[in-house]
Design the sequence.
């Protein structure tokens, strides 16, 4: 009987410690490098290719944010983006998310130039949505911090377009 309870106890300890290790691992994930400050709770994909794959697989639109560290407009937009609960919630639940600090080879992602910040949507059929644009005619896919409500509308539009087209 003694052996049996010792065995049971050590199994219990193993189970608890592996769960604890997993919990610690989860906690440690907070300063996530892929988020680059756009939202640590969001699951970010690493590459455009991975984003396309995930979008198709999950039937969610891919949101691609082009930005650079030393761009003050990017930093200002990033702050507004990260602080907006509605954006963060949608980004976590309804989108495949990618932020890039380099250009992709896909020319469809730079229809009017390779400027930053630039946010574009790709639907699960892998079509770049050239019809979801920002407020500026000279840089169609740029957003400024005060455009956050407009960006939210565009995120909702990207979600609506999938539902209506598939």
Sequence:
């Amino acid at each position: 009987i003694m052996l049996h309870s010792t065995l049971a106890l050590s199994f219990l300890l193993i189970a608890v410690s592996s769960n604890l290790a997993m919990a610690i691992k989860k906690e440690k994930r907070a300063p996530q490098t892929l988020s680059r400050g756009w939202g640590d709770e969001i699951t970010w994909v690493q590459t455009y290719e991975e984003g396309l794959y995930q979008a198709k697989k999950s039937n969610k639109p891919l949101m691609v944010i082009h930005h650079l560290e030393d761009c003050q407009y990017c930093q200002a937009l990033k702050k507004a983006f990260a602080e907006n609960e509605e954006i963060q919630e949608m980004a976590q639940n309804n989108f495949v998310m990618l932020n890039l600090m380099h250009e992709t080879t896909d020319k469809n992602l730079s229809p009017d130039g390779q400027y930053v910040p630039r946010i574009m949507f790709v639907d699960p059929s892998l079509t770049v949505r050239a019809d979801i644009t920002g407020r500026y005619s000279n840089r169609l896919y740029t957003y400024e911090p005060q455009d956050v409500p407009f960006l939210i509308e565009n995120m909702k539009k990207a979600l609506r377009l999938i539902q209506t087209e598939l």
Notes: Helices lie at 2-28, 48-58, 72-83, 85-93, 148-165. The beta strands are 62-66, 96-100, 118-122.
